[in-house]
């Protein structure tokens, strides 16, 4: 029967090899070799191979003559290659490969009992009785040393199950050199970690003799290594097997690239060994009183493995067998990161018996544990913060490292001159807090408006009542009833806004009411003011009846409360609207109109104001009359459409900032029009210092958020402003509003318009790009704005820039088509444009068609009359409105169609326009048409807006998409 065997055979010039054969025994007991087994047989299933047999064939196939020839010969003749093979080349290159593969194959054979035979070149036949015995376990070498006065004598034997076996004068065949494999008397002797060279001297002689002069050197090298790696019999010297304590050491040092690294070592007795050292036995050689002594101890391998696993669990990754670094997403890990890992894990390392040392550094770094305790104590308007860092035996007030936190400096020198590395987490957690605290040697103080910078769990522990109050403020879940005297029923969300303002007042905070257009910011504010004055009324009668009240056009009656008047500042166009709203909803509040050329200008103006509840004025007058107005302490200063103070360098901002008031409030639907600085200006007005000074805000928040999209800064800023800003959109609260349908209509230009547009665009682009190449974008910002404006106007109608133009406009044709359809169906239409001349062109066509309309622009003198003509006259179907004149303060729910003739620089303005019709009180579906000329600057502006609105949406509303155009974006617009 055919079987698979392995045959040890000697080949000329390459020595012993191992070959897999198919064989069978004939009737005479002769073992006949049929064919060498190869990989092709496996693929063809030539034999019922086991997994082990497949592996053996694959291993040995790599060292058959054909494959050795392919790997090591540049000749084309196999026979010639082996005949001319030099012995040294074989020893250096071929035998190491063969020994490796043969050793692997024999390891599998030893475990599977595959038959192995030796093919003696002197005999032609093999028999079953010639089978070689292959043991499962490796054999062990035995070094037998005897130290005498005459020197050191030693021999090398093999330990067998029957005792020691010498090699001298035996018939030995060397199958492999490294590791050694011998064939002796039909038995295979395999060794794990010794090569055949060490055995060769003892094949000829029984022992070797080392002369006395060389004994000391030999003992401390060769003998020590033998005791470490092999079984040794010693006569004339001592081998002590010791039980030594393991001390794991984590050493902070530099690697070859001078980067920080943690090297793991194991100390046994007085010697240290790198983790990954392969020896399982350590040996120390010493002499005492002329005697050679070897202290031998076995490594505690299981304990070492546990230490390595612990380090990995604690967050280290291995760079090599002995070198480690903390796990990190960054490829480069700096010294501070490594030390911080040691600080955080110090207690666990100590508990596990791991000793931390450092070497190779100019400074001595603290690698122990560190902790921070922080407590808050509530005072009237601030929190006292007591924060102590515990570093070893040192207690360090946190304010000592405040400047380190602010400057990003991580190294702090301890009293013992060690360097403490401030944890990275502290910079993330406390940088903002350190910017806003005031600190001295004793403590730190924080204004209550910055309470969100405190750790909220600790705040709840130390000031639970305050924490509850602030939670209500943040979540806007305050429950107050509407004031009794209000002649209106507040909607639920309006009641929440009113209550939120009352909560701000009770905690001496200012706020920004940033509800969407049309949600009733005015009535919420009136309710709050009414509550203020009703609550403070007393029964005392004024000693004098103020006869001069009539001089100031006051409504009969006067301010009976103990509170001073409140000032509301707004655009001029809204003054009468506010007056009417107050008279309608809270007629008991007495109003003084500080407007007009005949207004009283005096530093004694307070003598007039004190008799009124509310003073109404405009931004322009507040700016011009600040020297008078700042002499009076108002109860409230309220800014309506507060985006008017968005520029903190403007005179109007500086003026209103000088107004004195117990409380401050601003109202706006668009707190951010251009950039985050807009938000800073308004928030700084109501809560001075909440966001730091302007330079700090730009560097710490606005810059990182706007330019780098820093999410952590965004989160911090939202956290800071959240309690002091209330924003509700129509979608959130006005569920009862009818649906709004918006549609963008792309209008093809007429042929004449297209030619005119392309001709002008080419000239504008060439002039602008030439200027930009010479002086850059920033110095040509005005030129760019003028160019963009001109192209926008041409996209509407070339007649806007050229009185001689006689052609038509594709956009105008679509506008009048939609307009005629809407009017024929008895709808009212609002038409908004940012260009007054745009409205004038439409006005001419309306007049030609004898269509009744109203028009509101900046030059309109009697706004109320114009508005009334549209709202009260059913035959007046069209209202032409310029953005600046009618973007805010109008309630035009009579209209249910809104035409937006051109995309605004700021998309928020479109929302303002639409909200003139789609607001509380509207019962009809609202349809919005936005007209954009195809293949024009308008289309590109619209796309640019889409890319640039994400930032401001994060912080309440929409920003200006044209601000800070890059050169690339500018070129795209004019392409």
UniProtKB/TrEMBL annotation:
Pfam families: Helicase_C, SNF2-rel_dom. Residues 502-689 form the Helicase ATP-binding domain. It comes from the Bacteria. Residues 814-966 form the Helicase C-terminal domain. GO terms for molecular function: helicase activity. The keyword ATP-binding applies. Keywords: ATP-binding, Helicase, Hydrolase, Nucleotide-binding. InterPro entries: Helicase_ATP-bd (IPR014001), Helicase_C-like (IPR001650), P-loop_NTPase (IPR027417), SNF2-like_sf (IPR038718), SNF2/RAD54-like_C (IPR049730), SNF2_N (IPR000330), SNF2_RAD54_helicase_repair (IPR050496). This is DEAD/DEAH box helicase.
